Amino acid sequence: MSSKAPRLLLVHGHDCPRLDIRQTLSQRYFFVECALTDLPSYSWPEPLDIVLDAPIDTIEDFQRVQAALRRRPKHEPGIAFIIERQERALVLRAHALGAETVIARPLGARALFSSIDLLLNRARSKMWSERFGPEAEGLLAGTEVLDTLFEFAANGTRLTQRELYSRGDTVIETLGETGLGRWVEAVKAHHSRTYRHSLLVTGIAVGFGQLLGMRQDDLQRLAIGGLMHDIGKATIPAELLEKAGPLSEEEAMIVREHPSLGRGILSRQGGFAPEMIDVVAHHHEMLDGSGYPDALSGNQIRDLVRIVTISDIFAALIEERSYKTAIANEDAYAMLDGMKGKLDMSLVRAFRPIALETKLAA
Ligand SMILES: [Fe+2]
Ligand SMILES: [Fe+2]
Q: Does domain 8-107 sit in CATH 3.90.226.10?
């Protein structure tokens, strides 16, 4: 599934689709639309979850929505219901119609996004479990780590190192069992660009570490480091990170703060191994000193960081973004190979099989 594939169906039951929901949804999701009256004959080209925006003020309204939803497709889509105002009767009616989550007008982007993310997360976990069976465990573990990390970074919730490492182990096991290709395939199902990217970098870095024959404790550091490397982005507004277009110079400068922000977040909490903080703070440094935020050079940049940097650049190149298509693996590898002086070329050469032999179209 392409990252640009729609994940939601906006079903509208008003005279014409409401602008507020359309505009807010389009800030973050790809979606298709369908009138409530057309829903029974809708052909569901993909398993989408539903955002339902329809009046339920009268018993007739209720029955109309109920009748339209009766022939729900096989994948049993989750439903997020938009109601006109926060009113108990409307909330109850929405739940009676099968809503998993109910959002009242006026629509706040944050509340809407977190409700819909919940719906999409549930659908994705189900899909992973069905399609990948026990192998889904590592993906779910990786996602849980990201949930915890981002929650921790944004709201200061506690995080135990032991949990982090045990989930890191699950990620490594899964990658050992499924191989990188399946991991990448599954990661595409995540709706958040930051999550997709972090899971992809993790998969590539651990796969690379396994190829290099690294020890288990180093693989652990790569798994946690990969998941954590962009944690500084947790404090950058989602509208910027998920923006459907290239960033302005000013916006790009804000995003470039993320390694320093990440270092601050981890240092404040305390208890993180220095090599983890190193990965977070320095994955955008270059051997020739042209990177940021500290313009480190040469052997000031440790091996673990070098591996994450290569995995990070390669992941970003092969990812499809709203403003650029994915670059083919061969071309992406050629670009890495062209970064002599900036990257560790012996590592880049060792990376070749990961880049070329694994099917990694992301
Ligand atoms: Fe980064
Ligand atoms: Fe990154």
A: no
